[in-house]
Design a protein that fits this description.
This protein is of the alpha+beta class. Helices cover 28% and strands 33% of the residues. The strands form four sheets. Strands 21-20-19-26-25-22-23-24 form an eight-stranded mixed β-sheet. Strands 4, 5, 6, 7, 8, 10 and 11 form a seven-stranded antiparallel β-sheet that branches. One of its GO terms (biological process) is L-tryptophan biosynthetic process.
Amino acid sequence: ENFIKVKEAISKGRVYQINLTQNFKFHSKMDSFELFKLLLSRQDTEFKAFIKDETREILSFSPELFFKTKKRKIFTKPMKGTIKRDKDPIKDEENKIFLQNDTKNLSENVMICDLLRNDLSKIITKKSLKTKLFEIQSHPTLHQMTSSVQGKLKKNISLYQIFKALFPCGSITGAPKLESIKFIEELEQRDRGIYCGTIGLIHKNKNKFSVAIRTLEKQDEIYTYSTGSGLVWDSKFKDEFEELKLKSAILNPCDFYLFETMYFKNSQILFLKEHLLRLINSALKFNFNTHKLFKDFYNVLNQKSSYKEYQNFTLFKLDEKIFHKKHSLFYNFPLPFKNPHKEGILKLILYRDGRYEFQQSALKQNSNDILLLSDDKINSKSDNLYHKSSLRSFYNQHSYKWQQNLCYDIAFFNEKDELCEGSRTNLILEKNAQFYTPQIQSGMLNGVYRNFLVNLGLIKEKALFKQDLFEAENIYCINSVRGLKKVKLQ
């Protein structure tokens, strides 16, 4: 409907071009900074920004410069003209050539350049205006056409005067600018928020601001993403709609996998059934295909489990039995390797389509017994914490510390300052002959070994804080690969 209204307005001469936008919202418990880092791997742009204040969070992946100044020079780079990328290098180059020569995209770009030239003329000296047209910028999902417009600022021009002359950027309004803004308000009838605004840095003698496109805005657990396209007289609805989808491609479902890491010895795998059940529960949550997994592990999944033989052990005696003696929690399973290790770590990876694979690695001993405390806070509402997947960048950025034997693990707290877990282990605190572990809802992966000990009543779940950590008589790290390890704070 709005598309038709724009075409009618252009035919009557009210406007020449309109940047028509729309937004959509989605709900996610994923931590916003984790999402920022994930999307950054798809679109690592020059003007990326992550901003968090008391009311909202902004994740911007803008490729477009609004303006930058250095001393008395001002430089703008409006962006108009879009085409998708192709996996085939030859076709991809053909797409670039098409964009460089397409009359519709060229006319859109020229209109906005004229608008920027007009805006800049209010604040720059005579005869200093320079223009460079029709450059192509390539990004992971699309090619975009840009042009450069620059000049020399008049003496004593303030940042306020620059914004008064240029804001909002012409590339996200239309031409003529003032009439386009009025028309957009009639059509969209909503506040665009940070989208199409600007994000920047201010220094003593220089400034740089982006046009806030390709930008997510989060309030509570609701993300808003907006996208738009420039409409001119010869715009076609289908083409413009495809452009909206192309500019939203950064949000397409990411390709991640689920996995489990298990201890094996002599072709026997510890807690194999328990790991499979956790993997399947996560797979069902994320709509992974589990048909092949159920079929291939049918016998293991249907074995009866009994924990009776483990009920009369102390924590330490049980740990010794689990990791150093034969028992029913070791499952016979032929390892699918030509030269399997006698002992090591087995990683089971499950892909969305149901394919799975095994990887083996040596079990390296860590002689360090230091537990470090991280200043980075966990968001307890993030779904990622409760499932073991490849979306673990938050923990992976700390793993080098224990990989280099600088510590045994790193402990994390959530936004409420509750103790959560380590980057590779669950935690147990000993106090007054009682053993406590952080409660699940504080934000953590429910480790297989942790869950086993909780079910036996050997450890109790409780909300724990930093003070509890300092007052504990002993601290232990546990997982189903290495068992129980006594650690100390540095």
